[in-house]
Each structure stands twice: as C-alpha cells, then as structure tokens.
Design a protein that fits this description.
The structure is a single chain. Helices cover 30% and strands 20% of the residues. The chain is α/β, with parallel strands linked by helices. It has one domain: Rossmann fold (3-Layer(aba) Sandwich). A seven-stranded mixed sheet has the order 3-4-5-2-1-6-7, sandwiched between helices. Strand 4 and strand 5 form a beta hairpin. Its main location: cytoplasm. Belongs to the class I-like SAM-binding methyltransferase superfamily. TPMT family.
C-alpha cells in the first residue's frame, strides 16, 4: 500500500503518555464521535447485554453511554491518567487492582462492574485475560497503531472477537505525504487485506 513516508514512522508509548500529560489530546471527542451514534445499530444489531471492546480507549465518553444501556465495556489504554480522568469526569466510583498475568498492568473497574479498563500495552492482552467480545468500537486505534504493527494489532483483534461480532472502524483519508501521523492513513485496500 502507498502510505509514503509513514511506513516506517514509530510513535513510542512515551510520546502517547506525554500527549496525555500535556493535554495534547485533540483526538479526544468530548461529545463522542458522530459516527458512533449514526452506526450504533450496526454494532448492537438490536441485542442487549453485549461485551464491547474499546482498543486504545483513552477516556472515550461512548464507554459510559454503552454501560448505561446495560452493555459491558472493556477498554485498554497505556495512560493511567486518561483512565482515571474517565471515571472522575463521569463521577463513577471505581476500584483499582493489579492484573496478575501482566507485569505492571492495572485494571480499573467501575463499582457497578460494567466498565473494566486495562492500563497496559494492548499487545499484552489476550482472550484468556479479557475474554471475547460481541463488538468493537475502533474509533482511533488502527489509525494510531504504528504502521509496522498493524498486522500484529489486527491479528490480536481477530482473536478477541466472538463469531458474530461487529467491528466499527473509523479511519481518516488524506495524502500521507503531507502529514506524518498519527492519525495514520490506512487505505481501504489495506483494511481489506488486514481484516480479510
């Protein structure tokens, strides 16, 4: 695929943490993403009590919306600050515990039990730790993953999906020669080859 100079671009975990620390989080949508409301029916298919996964979740407000609708939400994010801000901004009481299978990882869980957010690299997760999901809301994960890690990311996501799950993916379209990313440009042809 023609992603130009982005092919070898690497954004470190430290850079992401710095974005949160300095408030450089233009990717966060206070009002939620407009495409979420528009395509929510595709994610849910009229089903209730689903398990929905938010890769690289940040403090996405959609997590609270789905939990309020009775769904279980699991997210993963490297920034502990982002996860704590999520609970604080929604006035949600939560508990914090270590994740035995992932050294240094923490899991923040709402007292109601419907929201579980893991603070670690997404690549440390597996279905044996977080289970499988009926749906995925990938609003800014695939486009944030380093281009060289896309295959690894998608391979992991496939292992986390139930057979009849729905995957909502938001990407951005632009000339990759004019912007170094993230968000990275992921051409439709690459999405098709990654997800099959």
């Amino acid at each position: 695929s023609d992603v130009g100079p982005q092919k070898d671009r690497v954004v470190s975990e430290e850079e992401w943490l710095r974005k949160w620390e300095t408030g450089n989080i233009g990717f966060h949508k206070e009002q939620g993403h407009p495409l979420f409301q528009k395509y929510l029916h595709v994610l849910l298919h009229g089903r209730s009590g689903l398990r929905i996964f938010f890769p690289l979740c940040g403090k996405a407000v959609e997590m609270k919306w789905l939990a309020d609708m009775g769904h279980s939400v699991v997210g993963v994010e490297v920034s502990e600050q982002a996860l704590k801000e999520f609970f604080t901004e929604h006035s949600l009481p939560y508990s914090e515990e270590l994740v035995p299978d992932i050294p240094g990882a923490k899991m923040f869980q709402s007292t109601c039990g419907r929201i579980s957010l893991y603070c670690c690299s997404i690549y440390h997760l597996s279905s044996s730790i977080v289970g499988k999901f009926d749906g995925v809301w990938d609003r800014g994960a695939l486009v944030a993953v380093n281009p060289s890690d896309r295959q690894r990311y998608v391979s992991l996501m496939v292992t986390l999906m139930e057979e009849n799950s729905s995957y909502l993916l938001v990407t951005v379209s632009y000339d990759p020669n004019k912007h170094k990313g993230p968000p990275f440009y992921v051409p439709e042809s690459e999405i098709k080859s990654l997800f099959g």
